[in-house]
Predict the structure of DUF229 domain containing protein.
Amino acid sequence: MSSLRIIPPPKCTSEEWLRVDRGHVYLSTEVREKHLNITCDYFPLYRVGDYHYKYSEPIQNIPDGFEMVSDFFKGVCRDIKNLTNIGIYSGVHYSDDRAKISDNADPLTLGFQGMSIAILGFDSMSRMSWHRRLRETRSYFKDTLKAIELESHNIVGDGTTAVMFPMLTGKFEWELPECRTGFQNATTMDTFPFLWHEMKKAGYLTSWCNAEPKSAPFNWRMRGFSQQPTDFYTRPYFMAVKEIQSSGPNCVGARTKSRMWLDYFRDVFLVYPQQRKFLFHFITDFSHDDNNLLTMMDADIKNVIKFLYEGNYLNNTLLILMGDHGARYANFRSTYSGKMEERLPYFGFLFPPWFEKKYPQAIKNLRTNTQRLTTPFDLYETFKDFFHFDGAGVGDVSKRGISLFKEIPLSRSCQDADIAPHWCACLDWKDVSPSDQEAKKALQAALDTINGYTAPYRDDCATLSLHNVIMAKKLAASDAFLKFEGTDSNGGIYKIFMNSNTKNEIIYYQMVFSTQPGGANFEVTIAFNTITTNFTVSENQISRINKYGSDSACIFHKNKQIRAYCYCKYNRR
């Protein structure tokens, strides 16, 4: 992540002859004035699995105001001089099946009067980066609308899926069936217990929409879905727009990619204002590599929220804005502040005004919990309350997930919340000399583990050796179970205390180091058992903290899972 820069939105100069509004297709006013006798054909665009799409037979010479029959389509228009314009368009079309989905719901399964949930998620946005880069959005969301923000929300693993699986299924990835590409017996995720399945049974319209198909969380290193997982699903559209020539890297025709993504989110409310909704729209490519790119979306995000709020579309909706984690790469990530920001993403909630009046204790607990240790598992339990709310009260600290409508005990530790020491932001790591004998052994264990992952592909991947140690820390087991009390204005921990009953059988080392060839930077937590004198490293406690880009291209189609550890031999000079 680079230093703060405000980036203006791109100027998308491609001409689009059609526009979409509330499920209908119209000729652009400007085009009418410039071209005569325009005729347009509508090619419905449909999903064919997660990696292909198709166009149906065209509907020829559509009238102005044509009612869409699909959410996505290719429009081919010609004027009297046979000048042709081709565009790929998106919108939300109306269908009776979607409109009547609530008719089949069991009212006994609904909590909070069947309130909707709508989530806008942004990749790699820490709490502090959100404050710096989305100032207009945050000012309107928090200061004007009085949204509630979590100040101590801690991730439980590496990357986006380590947030999505706990948040949407209540499970870690390794607690679910194998779904990674290249693994024997790996399955698609159709049968996984995603919340949207339960929401659909309860009469909710559902969405999972991501703007970049290549890096989509459930497709980048996983097998995706055989069947379309939700009612609204933008993957085929964003695959198709790569067909057309764009006037800029963030443009889709005459619109920015981010504007299209936000417009589609808005249009679900416009076309289906009365239906219950569980919407999750997550954008990757505007903030994953450089948070500054998100500044170009700031005004658009605020304006969409403002439009929905002032139009009373959020009267029965919980609106959530979130980041999945902080920045994971670049020089900033190698600093202490960068380490903290990776582990503490942004999370904010906007409830309709009536909710606090009807459920005052639930909102009181949520406000209390903004200063308590929370995780994606808590979000899962919170969403479950929308099926069956069993009251506010105090949460059970023995459970790793606690609904945010219950008060989370102040005594909750990372151990209680099932946060491994590598990811816990509450720990008091002590500096240790890299020349310390145990630290050197810990470092070697980390290096051996990383090389072990690439050993089956040694013809492609170089053996990595130590280049230099950037940081070395040590943590006794008793310190690993510190109790959390809060964060300071910089997103760091300001007060902790220990559970003195824990024995020091395990000592943790956290090493940040670079390797050669290739200059990879890793942050690894190593457990040292003082009884057996064994050093152990778990893959979920290894972080690659600088970009690897094309350095691992030779392994991409053989084993995507080890890209972070592989430096291709043909890269060597």
